[in-house]
């Protein structure tokens, strides 16, 4: 009997793709990448009824696809080693957790697996043609273009764009996760993802100086940490393969965080990352009744608002923590000084609650300018949200290693939460900050007049 079970299990492993009991993502070797692979597109359907065992579908067999529900396609990008994407299963399960939908994994690993990037990129339009044939059959069976959502990663983002163009922009939504830059940067709209490719296009740019696309490609384009170096990613080639792909992949992990209940990343529409860091865009540029856009799955909450803009496009910036779930919590630190002379420098602020939890923000992206009796409002970003702050500490630094140590005479400091504006604002008066020396104090509630 044991031998029989072993034989059945072995047969499941060696069955061809079309007859697999539970189809799985194509797994290829680095050897395949060296010799190259011909294109073969494999579609795998997951639903809440079959979350762990996919059903192979194609344009002649739609399987258990429910035409009345949303259908989300996940399209991966370049695969230089032939391995399956490490994030794929989490993305499938995360989507099924938030909504009862059809999820279709578009496996074009045979085609994307090659060490020659241009060979993979040249196959993107052919993948789009295969998806068009499948969607055509969905429409015949009663599906609506409004309910079709495509999530494309890297080259996959442009594939989604090509599909959208074939339907004259009538697809419900496209999300581009760090759309590929090489061979696409500077290309005209017909040769890449474009805001007109769906009713709503949102894009996360996490590696604009290397593998990603720099310019806006959607109705809303999110630039985490300015779209450049992502916190927690290796800064040098000593980080190995992660040095090359960590920033690029961060877009996927940020999207994944939006599918979890413990983190909703708020972004701030702004002309530039510098303006965002300088606290110039924290009200989203809209009436307070509108909440700021959320990154990821719920970004389309801003769809109707953006439709009113001409053109219906915006860029949004935010910062993240180094590790999952990546959320940062924004506060304003308002400082009025009474030094006779102008002081320039940075502020480090540390918050501590009664339980001993500590969170810190270094506001040092550029020197703040403190003038007598002028209020300076600094945007502080913390990776923990402490409900009740027991103590605050401040450190002032001019960044000078030699020369005199300066003092910053603070007439009033005020701390106010952007995420929770209903919370009491905290103040402290008459402080003298010695340069590079931590000053710890207990805050008091600000008079309501100041709020």
UniProtKB/TrEMBL annotation:
Q: Which GO terms describe its cellular component?
A: extracellular space; plasma membrane
Identify the residues that the record assigns to the Lipase domain, covering every copy: 37-326
- What would be one Pfam family of this protein? Lipase
Catalytic activity from the UniProt record: 1-hexadecanoyl-2-(9Z-octadecenoyl)-sn-glycero-3-phosphate + H2O = 2-(9Z-octadecenoyl)-sn-glycero-3-phosphate + hexadecanoate + H(+)
* Signal sequence residues: 1-18
Q: Which Gene Ontology MF annotations are present?
A: carboxylic ester hydrolase activity; heparin binding; metal ion binding; phospholipase activity
Per its database record, what is this protein's job? Hydrolyzes specifically phosphatidic acid (PA) to produce 2-acyl lysophosphatidic acid (LPA; a potent bioactive lipid mediator) and fatty acid. Does not hydrolyze other phospholipids, like phosphatidylserine (PS), phosphatidylcholine (PC) and phosphatidylethanolamine (PE) or triacylglycerol (TG).
Protein name in the entry: Lipase H
């Amino acid at each position: 009997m044991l031998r029989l079970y072993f034989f059945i299990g072995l047969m499941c492993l060696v069955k061809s793709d079309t007859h697999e009991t539970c189809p799985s993502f194509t797994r290829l070797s680095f050897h395949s990448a060296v010799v190259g692979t011909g294109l073969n597109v494999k579609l795998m359907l997951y639903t809440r009824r079959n979350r762990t065992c996919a059903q192979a579908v194609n344009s002649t067999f739609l399987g258990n696809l429910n035409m009345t529900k949303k259908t989300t396609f996940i399209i991966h990008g370049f695969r230089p080693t032939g391995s399956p994407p490490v994030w794929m299963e989490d993305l499938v399960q995360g989507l099924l957790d938030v909504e009862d939908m059809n999820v279709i994994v578009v496996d074009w690993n045979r085609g994307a697996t090659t060490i020659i990037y241009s060979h993979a990129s040249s196959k993107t339009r052919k993948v789009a043609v295969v998806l068009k044939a499948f969607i055509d059959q969905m429409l015949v069976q009663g599906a609506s273009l409004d309910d079709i959502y495509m999530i494309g990663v890297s080259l996959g983002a442009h594939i989604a764009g090509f599909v959208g163009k074939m339907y004259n922009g009538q697809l419900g939504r496209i999300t581009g996760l760090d759309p590929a830059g090489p061979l696409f940067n500077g290309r005209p709209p017909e040769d890449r993802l474009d805001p007109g490719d769906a009713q709503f296009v949102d894009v996360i740019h996490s590696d604009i100086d290397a593998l990603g696309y720099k310019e806006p490609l959607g109705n809303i384009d999110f630039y985490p940490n300015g779209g450049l170096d992502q916190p927690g990613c290796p800064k040098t080639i000593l980080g190995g393969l992660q040095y090359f792909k960590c920033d690029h992949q961060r877009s996927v992990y940020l999207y994944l965080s939006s599918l979890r209940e413990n983190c909703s990343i708020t972004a701030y529409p702004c002309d530039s990352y510098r303006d965002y860091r300088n606290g110039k865009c924290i009200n989203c540029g809209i009436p307070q009744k509108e909440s700021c856009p959320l990154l990821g799955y719920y970004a389309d909450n801003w769809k109707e608002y953006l439709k009113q803009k001409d053109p219906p496009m915006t860029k949004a910036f935010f910062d993240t923590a180094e590790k999952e779930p990546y959320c940062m919590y924004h506060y304003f630190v308002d400082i009025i000084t009474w030094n006779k002379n102008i002081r320039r420098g940075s502020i480090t602020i540390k918050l501590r609650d009664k339980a001993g939890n500590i969170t810190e923000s270094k506001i040092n992206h550029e020197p703040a300018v403190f003038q007598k009796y002028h209020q300076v409002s600094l945007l502080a970003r913390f990776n923990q949200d402490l409900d009740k702050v027991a103590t605050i500490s401040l450190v002032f630094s001019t960044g000078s290693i030699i020369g005199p140590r300066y003092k910053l005479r603070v007439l009033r400091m005020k701390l106010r939460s952007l995420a929770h504006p209903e919370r009491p604002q905290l103040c402290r008066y008459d402080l003298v900050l010695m340069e590079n020396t931590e000053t710890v104090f207990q805050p008091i509630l600000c008079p309501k007049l100041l709020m």
